[in-house]
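Practice problem: predict the structure.
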Amino acid sequence: MATSIFFTADTHFDDPRILRIDRRPFASLEEHDAALIERWNAVVGADDTVFHLGDFARGDGEAKEALLARLNGEKHLVTGNNDDLATIAAKGWASVAAYRELDIDGRRVVLCHYAFRTWNQMGKGAVDLHGHSHGKLKPLPRQYDVGVDVFDFRPVTFPEILASRRVRKRRSEAADET
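Answer:
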């Protein structure tokens, strides 16, 4: 069975501010966290890889390690502004970095919690994946917010990310015709 690579950001597990600030559609923090865990594990298999682009969770290190153990896949953290030392040191991350670059299907992919105005190999088709803006930032071409607020509270694959812009554009064009 082929493994997949997934991306996500801004899960904010165990963070009571997230329901109020981002108006996430959950009645309680417990419901929020349970839904995000369920949606993560529904798409990510045990052998898949997940790059979490920051703002993982609040709480102590033990709670974060228990949470990481409940989430499928090999997990890599690209740190965000809300990731404290307990998050960074938690057992369960395969790697932790502030910035990463990958090659996926021959394309350079730049990973950071923050959106860039420019990025490495931008002029050669490289893609910028980020979190932090919770779907509120107008993207540049080849720039995608992979946060859970944008993608139905779950991790997504690179092909899903690329297709998302095409789907939104087709919907917008169809609305203009009516």
